[in-house]
Amino acid sequence: MSKRRAALVLAGGGARGVAHIGAIEELESQGFEVHAVAGTSMGALVGGMYASGHLEPFKEWMCALDKYKVFSLVDFALSTEGLVKGNRVIQAMKELVPDVNIEQMPTPFAAVAADLLTGREVVLDSGGLYDAIRASISIPSVFQPVRKDDMVLVDGGTVNPLPLNRVRREPGDVLIAVDVSAPFAADGTTKKSLNYYKVLTASSEIMQQHIARLMCKLYKPDLLIELPADSFGIFEFYRSGEIVEAGRMAARAALEQSLAVEAG
Question: How much is the pTM?
C-alpha cells in the first residue's frame, strides 16, 4: 500500500489531547505518513513527542497514570500568576524523553503560544522542545506563564487553538486536523448542572471552538477528526487509555466518512 504524505495539526484540550495518540496510530495504520506537525497546548505536547520519535514510551507512561500519580505531578505555586508551577511534570517528561532542539528532530514541528503583553501569537519552531511545550501548555490561571525574552507566554489556544496555518506543508501533502475540543455533544447533559469551574471551562471552550471553525474556513483541512469538548474533562489524565481509544475511533469514523464521500 502506497503511503500518503500528511501534514498534521493537533488542537489543545487538556487530557482530551491524549486522543491525538490514538488518532495518529489509526492514521498510520491506514497508510498515512506524517511529515510535519504543528500543535497547541496538549496538541503541542503529543505532537512534540511524536515529532521527536518518542510517542510509544509517552503513550505507555500516560496510560499508566492513575489519580494518585496525576496528583503527584502537580506542584502548587504560591503565586497569583497561576495555581501550578509546571516544573514537576516537565521534569518527569525529561526523565522519560530527553530534551532536544526542535531543529534536530526527525520531523518538522511547531508549537503555538500567545504573548500576554502584546496579544500576539508566538510560533515556537526552534530551540528546546520542552521550552516550547511548557509555553504552549500554560493554561491561564492554571499554569504559571513562561517568561521568554521580553514575552510572557501562555497557552496558544487563546489565539490559535487549531494552528492549520503553522504546519510546514509540502506540495501534495494531505492536511489533517485533529480537534479534541469540537462542539459539545448534542444532548448537552453535562451543562445542566453548572458550577464556577464548569462555567469557566465551557466558556473558554466555546471561544476556542469558534476560532477553530474560522481557521477551518480559512485553511480548509482535507480531513478533520473531531472529539467533542465534553467527551472527557481537561484534567482526566487518569483515563488516558480510554481517551487514546476514543481518538482512534474518531479518526476511523472520519476516514470512513471521507471514503464514503469520495465514493459517492
Answer: 0.92
